Amino acid sequence: MSFETKEHAKQYWRENVKLMLTLLAIWFAVSYGAGILLVDALNEIRLFGFKLGFWFAQQGSIYTFIVLIFVYVRKMNALDRKYNVHED
Hints:
This protein is mainly alpha-helical. It has 3 helices and 2 strands; from the N terminus they run H-H-E-E-H. Strands 1-2 form a two-stranded antiparallel ribbon. Helix 1 packs antiparallel against helix 3 (52-82).
């Protein structure tokens, strides 16, 4: 991976870290917020016969994590192309 200038490298890593922090914040909010903090409120709602708080703690957070992986891959491929450091 070779950047055109050092400024491009700094911008690339700044955007990369911003993306990672955003996705980690979403991950934290779903796993800790929906799975622990809001579990009692969410348990009042049922989804496919299960309490929603339980569902988020057991299944919903896993689905969210998988979606975040695909979002990260897509965004990083776009970022690599933007700074001309893609592997194609």
